[in-house]
């Protein structure tokens, strides 16, 4: 698995990194930790340079997050309410939860965008309320790019350090990815089964 992805990255070059990182933030096919980590291994092998790798990954992250920002901005805050009321059971949220997030985001949206870039579960979905609260695009791009650049740099250098232990990494990436998705699915299923609306 790891060998296949790293060969795909090497074949696609920096555009491949950009595309994978953009898609990872829209419909996650492969986690960014794997993409940038394997990009770092490609650097260690001499197939890439670290600065263009980080730039391509960061631009891809911003592009993918802009997709959700755009959707949020076009849906708007109030137009989201019928969707939540209809599908709240499966989302395990109520409109009052959305209102709390909205108020919090209006007050502290900038640094929330930045901090959430380091959280695997929420770093993409946070772009939706950014658009819904009409955060200025320039502010959204700056905070997103800043957080993504730091996170991608950490992942890339982790990949470079792991480059000398490629066989060990290859042994664990597949099982860890599968285990992560299973845990997320089980946690979601448990939340849906046990969730009760406050109203």
From TrEMBL:
PANTHER family: ALKALINE PHOSPHATASE LIKE PROTEIN (PTHR42709), UNDECAPRENYL PHOSPHATE TRANSPORTER A (PTHR42709:SF6). InterPro entries: DedA_domain, VTT_dom. Its main location: membrane. It is found in: Cell membrane. Keywords: Cell membrane, Membrane, Transmembrane, Transmembrane helix. It comes from Sphingomonas aerolata. This is Membrane protein DedA with SNARE-associated domain. The chain crosses the membrane at residues 5-27, 47-71, 109-128, 140-160, 172-190. Residues 30-160 form the VTT domain. The keyword Transmembrane applies.
């Amino acid at each position: 698995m790891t060998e296949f992805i790293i060969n795909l990255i090497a074949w696609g070059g920096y555009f491949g990194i950009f595309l994978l990182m953009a898609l990872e933030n829209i419909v996650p096919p492969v986690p960014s930790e794997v993409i940038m980590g394997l990009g770092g291994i490609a650097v260690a092998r001499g197939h890439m340079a670290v600065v263009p790798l980080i730039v391509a990954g960061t631009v891809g992250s911003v592009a993918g997050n802009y997709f959700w920002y755009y959707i949020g901005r076009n849906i708007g805050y109030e137009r989201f309410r019928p969707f939540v009321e209809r599908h709240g059971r499966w989302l395990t949220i109520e409109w009052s939860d959305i209102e709390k997030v909205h108020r919090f985001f209006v007050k502290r949206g900038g640094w929330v965008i930045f901090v959430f870039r380091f959280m695997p579960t929420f770093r993409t979905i946070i772009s939706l309320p950014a658009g819904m609260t009409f955060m200025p695009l320039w502010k959204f791009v700056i905070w997103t790019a800043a957080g993504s650049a730091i996170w991608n740099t950490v992942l890339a250098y982790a990949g470079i350090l792991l480059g000398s232990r490629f066989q060990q990494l290859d042994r664990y990436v597949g099982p860890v990815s599968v285990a992560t998705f299973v845990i997320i699915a089980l946690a979601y299923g448990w939340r849906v089964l046990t969730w009760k609306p406050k109203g």
